[in-house]
Amino acid sequence: MQRKNKTLGEFIIENQVEFQYSTGELSKLINAIRLAAKVVNHEVNKAGLIDILGGVGETNVQGESQQKLDVLANEKFIQTLTNREIVCGIASEEEEDFISINSQDENHQNKYVVLIDPLDGSSNIDVNVSVGTIFSIYRRITPIGTPVTLEDFLQPGINQVAAGYIIYGTSTMLVYTTGHGVNGFTLNPAIGTFYLSHPNMQFPETGKIYSVNEGNYTHFPQGVKDYIKYCQREEGDRPYTSRYIGSLVSDFHRNMIKGGIYIYPKSSVNSDGKLRLLYECNPMAFLAEQANGKASDGFRRILEIQPKELHQRVPFFCGSRKMVDKAENFMQGKA
Ligand code: AHG
Ligand code: MN
Ligand code: MN
Ligand code: MN
């Protein structure tokens, strides 16, 4: 039984003992993410008051126009993790290359790398719609004490040690997993403390929501077109409801609570879809599986894909297990 009013800080300490994280390093790292989340939350909340809305006039490595909050969130997360010398490397959606963190301290033995999407759904910033942050943590492969290499970041998702997201929504929540289920914490902004509000989150086995950018319908593969038509057909518990925010974090969060499927397929204009395997799909897939859901590219389990490059994109089907199974059947011509 979870005691009421447990804070994220208390939860991290309790679980450090329970799961025997050998050095407490992972706990310190999650604590640093908790701190960065509060800083970014503060910036996102006051975005309309000061001049931090809108674009910076730069294009990032993804070919997207960067928003000021993309840049700011990226800086805050990198600064917080770097200053605490808590990781040996960071890769970010907003950075062309990974960052190797060389400690001043010779005894510095950090073994974790972090991959982040600092601000997810950035096209929603200027219109006051929920955005998020996604993070993914791996143990490095190369020897401790040496500079990290690309190999440390190009690990399949099954190697993740922890993953989570922060949703800056009607309330701000931090949701994460260390491979022992998914727990959600809601920020009390008055005192700056996250409380355990959603213990052991689970996707319902099936649901009635499908989330896909239907504006791209003409460009979708036949399997996705057929699945969308299936969702819309009047039969059994259908038609389903269409809900698409355009922030993966928010669409995922709603679907995990209510039951649903999120799809960002490949298309005739984006041969690998849009979402990034390392910063978006792997962490969300780890969370989905830990919450009794499923994530695939239509054919393969996301977590088993061997990444080839840092900013690799992949088609993404994620959510309630039975709905993802059904969509996969359509993709594979079995429906
Ligand atoms: P980001 O803001 O980190 O670049 O991610 C945007 C992603 C994701 O959050 C969202 O689900 C998707 O792009 C929306 O894309 P479309 O506008 O093409 O539907
Ligand atoms: Mn972006
Ligand atoms: Mn994103
Ligand atoms: Mn982003």
UniProtKB/TrEMBL annotation:
Which residue numbers delimit the Fructose-1-6-bisphosphatase class I N-terminal domain? 6-199
First-listed, main subcellular location of the protein, grouped into a coarse class: cytoplasm
Residues that hold Mg(2+) 1 according to the record: E93, D117, L119
Location within or outside the cell: Cytoplasm
This protein's record includes keyword Hydrolase: yes
Q: Which family does it belong to?
A: Belongs to the FBPase class 1 family.
What organism does this protein naturally occur in? Robiginitalea myxolifaciens
Give the organism's phylogenetic lineage: Bacteria, Pseudomonadati, Bacteroidota, Flavobacteriia, Flavobacteriales
Query: Per the record, GO CC terms?
Result: cytosol
State the name under which the record lists this protein: Fructose-1,6-bisphosphatase class 1
